[in-house]
Amino acid sequence: MSTNEQSNYLRNPKPRPITAPKLHHATFMTMDVDAMVHFYELVCGLQPVYYSSHAAWLTNDEANHRIALLRLPGTKPPVDKPHTAGLHHTAFEYATFDQWLDNYERLRDQGILPAVCLDHGMTMSMYYVDPDGNGIEIQVDNFGDWGLSKEWMWAAQEFSEDQVGPQFDPEKLVQARRDGLDGDQIHKSAYAGKYRPDNESPDMSFPDPWPARIAANPALADGVPFPPSADVAPGID
């Protein structure tokens, strides 16, 4: 910075809060609270603190909620969900590689498979799709330390050239672990492209569940109905 250039703090004395807030929860509009509660409990271990047919608040830690679900009158299905602006996915992280891969096997055995799997370099990530078409990332930090993974993202030439990373087939990871490789060895091989899917798809967008849902139940296209006596949608605190 030249000696004549003003600092950001001179131009804007308070460019950020002195105490930064932490991300607490994400809220989704939905047309089927029960299906969403079932999915998030099964995939992420989130349980409802409060549950009703029109709303639910779920948590899997000490917070009062981490995911909120609202079924408000007038809510309509999205159009072309995978290709519209808005929230792409939320992410949940396991502490160890083995916990993360064990979770894949647990979900696989219940018929739930990821839509796409990527080794981003700082994380290995499996992306699932909830009943409304929202992406859910289940990840593990490849460094086991946020400070180290943050430094790698900032400094690594590999990440500056490719922020996505190679796809991998999780079954090949399962087999590699059975063969005696540890998480770090598997990550390095995955990042080198060793475990790519046999039929890798160039389109990494999430599948859209809504056309099939509406075809099976055309009334969904009309959205969540308003109560007969309600002039406006009920408020949600």
From TrEMBL:
VOC domain: residues covered: 22-141
InterPro entries: Glyas_Bleomycin-R_OHBP_Dase, Glyas_Fos-R_dOase_dom, GlyoxalaseI/FosfomycinResist, VOC_core
Key words of the record: Dioxygenase, Oxidoreductase
Domain of life: Bacteria
SUPFAM superfamilies (UniProt xref): Glyoxalase/Bleomycin resistance protein/Dihydroxybiphenyl dioxygenase
Recorded GO MF terms: dioxygenase activity
Region feature Disordered, mapped onto this chain: 190-210
Pfam family, one: Glyoxalase
Protein name: Extradiol dioxygenase
